[in-house]
Automatic annotation (TrEMBL):
Signal peptide: none annotated. It comes from Sphagnum troendelagicum. It is found in: Membrane. This is Cytochrome P450. The lineage of its organism: Eukaryota, Viridiplantae, Streptophyta, Embryophyta, Bryophyta. Transmembrane segments: none annotated. Keywords: Heme, Iron, Membrane, Metal-binding, Oxidoreductase, Transmembrane, Transmembrane helix.
Length: 267
C-alpha cells in the first residue's frame, strides 16, 4: 500500500515538474483536482490491485453519482415522500449510474473469482477485494457468515471504501499543500527531513520510514487540527454515561463540534 502511495505521488510530482518546465518556471495548478485524482489512484490500487484501471472507472462513476445526488438535493420538491422514486430525468440518470456502478464492481469481483478458479490458486490477492474474498472462502467460515457477505455485500463494501476514503483524504492533502505554500520555512524543514530519511536519490518512501518523519507528522497533525476534513460528528449514547459533571442518558444524541474544539485554546 505504501509503495502504491509513493508511486502515485511520484508520478504526480513528475507531471507537475514537467508543467513547470513547459511554463518557463511558473505555472498555476488546481491542487484540489490533483489531490482528488491522487486519492483515487491510491484507493483504486489498494482496493483492486491489478484491476486498478477498472477500479478508477468505478471511482469516476461514483463521483458522477455524488454530483447527481447533489443536484437532486437542490430541487424544491425533494422533501415530498416518494419523490426519489418518480421517473424524472434526473432520477432515471441516478438509477442508471447506480446500476452501472454495481455492474462494474460485479464484473471485477466475478473476474477475480474466475481467475482463482481457473488457475487453482489458494489466494485471491492481498488487496482489499482479495482479502474480503479470501475471508468468505475460508473453510472455517460458517454458511451464515458467507451468506451475509454475498455479492451485494462485497459491492456495498467496495463502494463505501471508495466513498469514505477519497473525500477526506483529498481535502486533507489539499489543505496541507496550502499550509506548506503559506509557510515556506516549514516546507524547507519537511523537504530536508525527507531527504535525510529517504536519501537524496530516487529512493521511494517505504513503510519502515514513516515513524522517522517527525516534522512531516507534525505538519500533518497541525493541518488536521486547523482544517479537519469533518467539522462535526454526531454520536448516540448506547448506555447511561457519566461524563465529567454531566449525566448522559442512554439514547441521547451528542453533537461534537470538532472544528470549534480544535480552535479553542482552553480545550
Amino acid at each position: 500500500m505504501v509503495a502504491a502511495m509513493a508511486k502515485s505521488a511520484s508520478s504526480m510530482a513528475d507531471e507537475w515538474e514537467t508543467k513547470v518546465m513547459d511554463g518557463g518556471g511558473c505555472v498555476e495548478l488546481e491542487v484540489g483536482d490533483y489531490m482528488t485524482r491522487l486519492a483515487a489512484n491510491i484507493i483504486a490500487h489498494t482496493a483492486f490491485g491489478s484491476n486498478y484501471e477498472r477500479g478508477r472507472k468505478v471511482f469516476d462513476q461514483q463521483l458522477a453519482l455524488i454530483n447527481l445526488h447533489g443536484q437532486r438535493a437542490m430541487q424544491p420538491l425533494v422533501a415530498i415522500p416518494g419523490y426519489s422514486l418518480l421517473p424524472t430525468p434526473l432520477n432515471i440518470q441516478i438509477f442508471e449510474t447506480q446500476t452501472a456502478i454495481s455492474n462494474s464492481l460485479r464484473e471485477i469481483i466475478q473476474s477475480r473469482k474466475d481467475m482463482v478458479n481457473k488457475t487453482k490458486k489458494s489466494s485471491y490477492g492481498d488487496d482489499l477485494l482479495g482479502l474480503m474474498l479470501t475471508t468468505t472462502s475460508e473453510k472455517n467460515t460458517s454458511r451464515v457468515e458467507k451468506a451475509q457477505f454475498d455479492m451485494q455485500a462485497l459491492i456495498d463494501n467496495c463502494r463505501t471504501f471508495f466513498f469514505a476514503g477519497h473525500g477526506a483524504s483529498s481535502t486533507f492533502l489539499t489543505w496541507t499543500m496550502m499550509l506548506l505554500a503559506s509557510h515556506m520555512n516549514w516546507q524547507e524543514l519537511a523537504r530536508e527531513e525527507i531527504k535525510q530519511v529517504c536519501g537524496r536519490g530516487d529512493c521511494l518512501l517505504e513503510a519502515n520510514m514513516l515513524n522517522k518523519l517527525k516534522i512531516v507528522n507534525m505538519i500533518l497533525n497541525e493541518t488536521l487540527r486547523l482544517f479537519p476534513p469533518f467539522v462535526a460528528l454526531t454520536r448516540q449514547a448506547m448506555k447511561d454515561v457519566k461524563l465529567c459533571v454531566w449525566d448522559i442518558p442512554k439514547g441521547l444524541s451528542l453533537h461534537i463540534p470538532i472544528l470549534a474544539i480544535h480552535h479553542d485554546p482552553n480545550i
